[in-house]
Design a protein that fits this description.
The structure holds two protein chains of two kinds.
Chain A: E1 12-17, H1 21-29, E2 37-43, E3 50-54, E4 57-61, H2 63-66, E5 69-71
Antiparallel strand pairs in A: 1-2, 1-5, 2-3, 3-4
Chain B: H1 3-10, H2 22-26, E1 37-43, H3 49-57, E2 74-77, E3 86-90, H4 102-111, E4 122-128, H5 132-144, E5 149-154, H6 156-161, E6 165-166, H7 168-175, E7 179-181, H8 190-202, H9 209-213, H10 218-232, E8 235-236, H11 248-256, H12 262-302, H13 307-324, H14 327-343, H15 345-352, H16 354-359, H17 367-372, H18 377-383, H19 390-399, H20 408-419, H21 424-453, E9 464-466, H22 474-508, E10 509-510, E11 527-528, H23 536-542, H24 545-548, H25 555-563, H26 570-582, H27 587-591, H28 594-600, H29 613-625, H30 630-640, H31 643-670
Parallel strand pairs in B: 1-3, 1-4, 4-5, 5-7
Antiparallel strand pairs in B: 2-3, 6-8, 10-11
Helix pairs in contact in B: 1-8, 5-10, 7-10, 12-13, 12-14, 12-21, 13-22, 13-26, 14-22, 18-30, 19-21, 20-21, 20-29, 22-26, 23-25, 25-26, 29-31, 30-31
Classes of the chains: A alpha+beta, B alpha/beta.
The structure holds guanosine-5'-diphosphate and magnesium ion.
Chain lengths: ~70, ~675
C-alpha cells in the first residue's frame, strides 16, 4: 500500500522506498528505513505537504515524496 | 588530574623527562601544546551546535529552533575559565552526505579533511538526545574520518519531559566514545565536556571503535545502531512515535497547521509581530528623542558659540539622534524575530507556504531567508544556501532585496508618522501591511522572473524536519538580540555619522559673494549660507530637480534619496539636517521636532508643501522597491559568483522603485489625493 493511501494517525510499517535514487537515499538517511514505524499525522492547508512522524521526529513531506513510500 | 595542565606541560621541551609521569610517557599527546587547537562542532541541523558554541565561547552566535540557520563557518575562542585556549569552529548542520546542499558540502569538506584552511584537531559531535538514532548515524560518519571525537548530548531537559532517560555512561561504553550531557544555553555540562575533550586529545589510545564501525549505508547503519542501543541498556522508554502521547507539539500543530485556520493564523502571527514593533516602541522613542534634544541644547549652551558648537549640535547630535529615535523599533524587531525563531514555528511557516511558493518557482525553505530578510538582506542571501535546487535558490536571492529590511524601518517609521500624525495604532497596522506586502510582492516577482528568465529543471525535495516546540530562555534570547542589534549599529553607525557631518557642511557652506556674511565671519571663498538654497548641497541637489519633480519632492528630499545609498537610515538623518537648516532663522522651528519641521516644509518660493500624502506614499514606494544597499550587491555577487545578477538587481529594483513611485504619485494626484 502507498503511504498516501494509509489512514491518518495510524501507525504503519515502511516496506520499501520506490523512487529516484538520490532522493530516496536522503529519505533513508533521515531514518525512513524499511521496517520502521511511521504515521501520517495531518495534512497542512492545500493538502500538501503532509506531516509525518518517524523515529520520534516530525517531518514535512511533499506528496511527491510521500508517494515513494510503500507501507504495510 | 587537571587536563589543561597536562596538555601544557607534557609536550614542552622545557619539561624534563624525570618529571613526566608514567602515563604521559605511555601516551604522548597527539598534538603539540604550543599551537592553539582547532575543534569543530559537527552535527545534524538543529542539534544545538550553535547554542553549545555560545556556551563554549561566550559568544552571541545566532541560534534558532529551525534546521538550517548556520550556513557559514564561524570561529570563536574558548572562554578563559575553560583552561588553555582552544579555537572552536561552528559548522553548518548536515542532514545527509548524499547530494549535499552548499552549506552541507562546506561542513563535509571540513569533516573529511578536504577544506583549504580549517583542519580540525578534534571534533565535538553534537547529538540531540531526543533523536538519538538519526543523530548517531551522522556521528558515525564523523567518527569514521579517524579524528579524535567526543559526543555532546543536548536537549536532555526535553528528554526528561517526555519521560525518557539516557544513561550517558552506558551510552559512552557502548559506543566507545566519551558522551557528555550539556545544555549550551545555560552552560550546564560544558566544563565536563572540555575535560573529556582534553582527555581525548592527550590519549591517542581512545578510539571511537564501535561508532566508527557503523557503515554508511543507512538501512544497515540504523539496524546496527538500534542493536547497539538495545544491548547497552542506556536508553529507557524510547519513543518512536508521539502520536498517542498527545504531546504539546502535537497539540500546537493541530491548530497552527489546521486546514482552514492555518494560513490566517500564519498571517496574524507575522502581522502582529510587525504591528507591535510600532506599538511597543513609542514610549522608548519619546525618551530617546528627549535625550538627544537635551544633548543638543546642552552642547550649544556649553561650547562657545560658533561653527563648532552648531556642527556638533546639529550635524552630529541632530543627525544621529534622528535615526537613534528608531533604534527601539529595531531592538523590538530583533527580539521578536529571535523569539519566533526559537519557538519552532518557522518550520511550520515554511511548510504552510511550501505549496504556494513552489507554484511561484520558490521553495518552502525560501520562507526563512525571506523572513530573515526583514532583519537584514545579507544573512538572508546566505541563508538561501539551504535551498536544494539552484533555480529556486537564485530566485530566492533575487527577491530578498524586496524584503523590508531593518534599515528601511526608520525610514518607514518617519514617513508613516508624517503621514498619520498621532495615530500610532494605524501606523502600526500600516507597517504590518508594508511587511506583508513585501512578502507577497517578492513572491509574485519570483513568479514572473522565474517564468520569463530561468528555465525549470526538475522538482526539488522538501523533506523538512519540524522540531519540537521549545520555550525560549530569556537570557540567550536577549544576548542574541543584542548581538544582532550591535551588528546593526556597527553597519549603520559610521555612514550615519560621516554622511551627517558632510551634509551639514555642504548645507551650511556655499560659494558666492552674494551670501550675507555671518557675525562669526568666514573667508571669502567659503561663506556660510544662512540661505540654504545657495549652499553646496543645494547646488548639487538642484541638478536633480528634473528627476525629482515627477515624484513631487524637492531637491532636499533628493539629497536624502542619494545619501540613502550609503545606508538607508541616512535618509532620516539627512532629512533632519537639511530641513533643520532651512528653518534656521525661525526660532520656533528650531525647537520643533523633525516631524513638525517636515510638516511645515514648503517648496522654495511657493507655499506648496513638500510632504503631502501623495509624496509621502510615493517615497515609501521608492524605498519599498529600490536596492539602496551596496553590501547586498556585493554579497549577492559573492554568493552567485558573478556580477551579472548583482548588477541587474541594482538597476532593476532601483529603476522599478523610481518608476512606480512616479506612477503612484501621479496616479494619486489624478484621483484627487494632494
Ligand atoms: N531545550 C533545549 N533547547 C536547546 C538546547 N540546546 C539548544 N537548544 C535550542 O535548540 C535550538 C537549536 O539550537 P542551535 O544551536 O541553533 O542548533 P544548530 O542548528 O545545531 O546550530 C535553539 O532554539 C536552541 O536555543 C538544550 O540543551 N535544551
Ligand atoms: Mg547553528
Amino acid at each position: 500500500m502507498k503511504l498516501l493511501d494509509a489512514p491518518i494517525n495510524t501507525c504503519c510499517r515502511i516496506e520499501r522506498l520506490d523512487g529516484p535514487e538520490t532522493e530516496c537515499r536522503r529519505l533513508l538517511d533521515l531514518g525512513l528505513t524499511p521496517g520502521e514505524e511511521m504515521a501520517v499525522v495531518q495534512a497542512v492547508p492545500f493538502g500538501d505537504p503532509l506531516v509525518v512522524e518517524v523515529r520520534g521526529m516530525r517531518l514535512a513531506l511533499r506528496r511527491r515524496e510521500a508517494a515513494w513510500i510503500r507501507v504495510l | 588530574m587537571d587536563q589543561s595542565a597536562l596538555i601544557n606541560s607534557s609536550a614542552l621541551t622545557t619539561t624534563s623527562t624525570e618529571t613526566r609521569t608514567a602515563e604521559e610517557q605511555a601516551a604522548p599527546p597527539v598534538t603539540p601544546a604550543d599551537r592553539v587547537l582547532t575543534v569543530c562542532l559537527a552535527g545534524v541541523p538543529n542539534a544545538g551546535k550553535t547554542a553549545l558554541m555560545n556556551g563554549l565561547t561566550g559568544g552571541g552566535f545566532h541560534t534558532a529552533n529551525y534546521p538550517g540557520v548556520t550556513v557559514t563557518i564561524s570561529r570563536g575562542k574558548s572562554r578563559a575559565e575553560l583552561g588553555a585556549e582552544i579555537s572552536f569552529v561552528d559548522l553548518p548542520g548536515v542532514h545527509s552526505t548524499v547530494a549535499p546542499t552548499i552549506e552541507e558540502e562546506l561542513s563535509c569538506s571540513v569533516i573529511e579533511g578536504r577544506h583549504d584552511s580549517i583542519h580540525p584537531d578534534a571534533l565535538i559531535i553534537v547529538v540531540d538526545a531526543t533523536q538519538l538514532e538519526r543523530h548517531l548515524k551522522f556521528a558515525a560518519f564523523v567518527a569514521r574520518q579517524g579524528k579524535p571525537v567526543v559526543v555532546a548530548l543536548t536537549m536532555m531537559d526535553l528528554l526528561a519531559k517526555s519521560g525518557q532517560t539516557i544513561n550517558s555512561k552506558k551510552l559512552s561504553e557502548a559506543l566507545g566514545v566519551a558522551v557528555v550531557p550539556v545544555d549550551g544555553r545555560t552552560g550546564w555540562g560544558v566544563g565536563e565536556l572540555m575535560t573529556a575533550l582534553r582527555e581525548r586529545l592527550t590519549n591517542p589510545f581512545i578510539t571511537a571503535a564501535v561508532l566508527a564501525e557503523i557503515p554508511d549505508e543507512p538501512v544497515e547503519a540504523y539496524r546496527r545502531l538500534r542493536a547497539i542501543l538495545d544491548a547497552s541498556g542506556a536508553v529507557k522508554k524510547s519513543r518512536p512515535l508521539m502520536l498517542a502521547e498527545n504531546s504539546l507539539t502535537a497539540r500546537i500543530d493541530k491548530v497552527v497547521l489546521h486546514r482552514y485556520a492555518g494560513l490566517p493564523i500564519f498571517f496574524i502571527i507575522l502581522g502582529g509581530l510587525f504591528a507591535s514593533i510600532f506599538w511597543l516602541a513609542q514610549p522608548f522613542m519619546d525618551f530617546i528623542e528627549w535625550l538627544f534634544k537635551e544633548a543638543g541644547a546642552l552642547t550649544l549652551a556649553v561650547l562657545p558659540e560658533g561653527i563648532l558648537a552648531r556642527f556638533i549640535a546639529e550635524g552630529i547630535i541632530g543627525g544621529v539622534g534622528a535615526v537613534a529615535v528608531f533604534f527601539p523599533q529595531i531592538l523590538i524587531l530583533f527580539f521578536l524575530m529571535t523569539l519566533l525563531e526559537d519557538s519552532g514555528y518557522l518550520s511550520r511557516g515554511a511548510a504552510l507556504v511550501d505549496r504556494p511558493l513552489s507554484a511561484l518557482g520558490l521553495h518552502g525553505r525560501s520562507f526563512v531567508p525571506m523572513l530573515s530578510g526583514f532583519a537584514c538582506a545579507i544573512p538572508a542571501v546566505l541563508a538561501a544556501r539551504t535551498i536544494p535546487s539552484k533555480r529556486e535558490r537564485l530566485l530566492t536571492i533575487w527577491i530578498i532585496p524586496l524584503m523590508s529590511c531593518s534599515a528601511r524601518l526608520p525610514v518607514y517609521a518617519l514617513l508613516l508618522a508624517a503621514l498619520l500624525p498621532g495615530a500610532v495604532g494605524k501606523a502600526g497596522l500600516a507597517l504590518a501591511c508594508i511587511y506583508l506586502a513585501s512578502l507577497l510582492t517578492g513572491s509574485l516577482t519570483a513568479g514572473i522572473i522565474g517564468k520569463l528568465f530561468i528555465r525549470k529543471k526538475s522538482d526539488s525535495m522538501l523533506a523538512m524536519e519540524m522540531p519540537l516546540y521549545r520555550r525560549p530562555l530569556i537570557k540567550p534570547t536577549l544576548k542574541i538580540t543584542w548581538s544582532r542589534a550591535s551588528a546593526y549599529l556597527k553597519r549603520a553607525g559610521a555612514p550615519i555619522i560621516i554622511i551627517s557631518s558632510i551634509l551639514w557642511m555642504l548645507s551650511n557652506f556655499g560659494l558666492g559673494a552674494q551670501q550675507p556674511k555671518r557675525e562669526d565671519g568666514t573667508s571669502a571663498a567659503f561663506i556660510t549660507a544662512s540661505d540654504l538654497d545657495h549652499s553646496f548641497a543645494a547646488q548639487l541637489g538642484q541638478s536633480l530637480e528634473p528627476v525629482l519633480r515627477p515624484m513631487a519632492v524637492d531637491w532636499r528630499v533628493g539629497v536624502g534619496l542619494i545619501s540613502a545609498f550609503a545606508a538607508r537610515e541616512v535618509f532620516v538623518s539627512t532629512m533632519a539636517i537639511v530641513f533643520h537648516v532651512a528653518d534656521e532663522n525661525n526660532e520656533q522651528a528650531q525647537q520643533a521636532g523633525l516631524l513638525d519641521t517636515m510638516r511645515e516644509a514648503t517648496f522654495a518660493n511657493s507655499s506648496q508643501r513638500v510632504f503631502t500624502p501623495s509624496s509621502i506614499i510615493g517615497l515609501m514606494v521608492f524605498f519599498f522597491f529600490s536596492l539602496q544597499c551596496l553590501s547586498t550587491v556585493s554579497v549577492v555577487r559573492a554568493e552567485t559568483n558573478s556580477w551579472k545578477m548583482a548588477g541587474l538587481q541594482l538597476l532593476f529594483y532601483t529603476g522599478l522603485g523610481y518608476l512606480l513611485s512616479v506612477a503612484v504619485v501621479q496616479g494619486l494626484r489624478v484621483i484627487g489625493v494632494a
